[in-house]
UniProtKB/TrEMBL annotation:
Entry's family note: Belongs to the arylamine N-acetyltransferase family.
Keyword Cell membrane listed: no
The enzyme's E.C. designation: 2.3.1.118
Gene3D superfamilies xrefs: Arylamine N-acetyltransferase (3.30.2140.10), Cysteine proteinases (2.40.128.150)
Coiled coil: none
Keyword Ligase carried by entry: no
Organism the protein comes from: Streptomyces syringium
Pfam families in UniProt: Acetyltransf_2
Superkingdom field: Bacteria
Organism placement in taxonomy: Bacteria, Bacillati, Actinomycetota, Actinomycetes, Kitasatosporales
Name of protein: N-hydroxyarylamine O-acetyltransferase
GO molecular-function term, one example from the UniProt record: N-hydroxyarylamine O-acetyltransferase activity
């Protein structure tokens, strides 16, 4: 039997499930999918720190397991969703990879650089995405045009556009806000390797020049971008503060549960103070 496309045969499933707080026996059903998705979002922060530390972002399953499970770090969309894909593959779910164009409220056409998954469970297809960061889903969302669903204090919806494109939206106090547009084309790990190279190296990528660290919970979202830490609630209220270079390791540990080695903390402080 050959290697699986998504690397489930390389994953220490027990270690992953323990990391996300999943108990019981995983099965290829909606109950397991919901629990794994929610547990993953709660356990792993969104973060781009490897890029700022001068290291390549590795997407093979052993590297993802070592970084995110063993060393208890986070990652950005490809890392997060490829680790989830390996777990779903190992459990026995049927799914396909997706590519999406990030909108974040903008009408401009951006390249397809975001990864998500379409997963089959209990006779229906579900959008699963544990790697969108601060505005992302807490749980799977059914692929139904016009769906509206509340997850914690957050409300999400999906609309169909032309040529099979679907748009994931979230409800802001001022109205619906487009997060990203999902294309109909099936994507594969090799596609994400190309996207990852662009996102982790291109000077116009939003992740190469400043820290972006995010965590979504049921009632608030924490977001560190550059030197500004923001905590946002569903009613639009927020608290913000500036994070000085000397505070950064403590903020990462306290707010996002990211514990850096002394060498990494020193490197990140040097990058952080050079104009990020």
């Amino acid at each position: 039997m050959g290697e699986s496309l998504w690397g489930g045969d390389e994953l220490d499933l027990d270690g992953y499930l323990a990391r996300i707080g999943f108990t019981g026996t995983p099965r290829a059903d909606l109950a397991t999918l919901r629990a794994v998705h929610r547990g993953h979002v709660a356990a792993f922060p969104f973060e781009n720190l490897e890029i700022l530390l001068g290291r390549p972002v590795l997407l093979d399953v052993p590297a993802l397991q070592d970084k995110m499970v063993t060393r208890r770090r986070g990652g950005y969309c490809y890392e997060q969703n490829l680790l989830l894909a390996a777990a779903l593959d190992r459990v026995g779910f049927s799914f396909t990879g997706l590519g999406a164009r990030v909108r974040m409220g903008s009408d401009s056409r951006r390249p397809a650089t975001h990864m998500a998954l379409a997963v089959q469970a209990d006779g229906e297809q579900w959008l699963c995405d544990v790697g969108f960061g601060g505005e992302g889903l807490l749980e799977p969302l059914a692929f139904r045009d016009g769906i509206r669903e509340r997850q914690g204090d957050w409300t999400f919806g999906m609309e169909r556009e032309q040529k099979g494109v679907r748009v994931l939206r979230t409800l802001h106090p001022e109205g619906w806000f487009d997060l990203y547009a999902i294309g109909p084309e099936e994507r594969f790990p090799v596609d994400y390797a190309v996207m990852n190279h662009y996102i982790s190296t291109h000077p116009r990528s939003p992740f190469v020049s400043r820290p972006v660290v995010q965590q979504t919970e049921s009632d608030h979202r924490r977001n560190l971008v550059g030197t500004v830490l923001t905590s946002t609630r569903a009613d639009g209220s927020r608290d913000t503060c500036e994070v000085g270079v000397e505070e950064l390791p403590d903020v990462l540990a306290r707010e996002f549960r990211i514990e850096l080695s002394a060498a990494d903390a020193e490197t990140l402080a040097r990058v952080y103070s050079s104009g990020t």
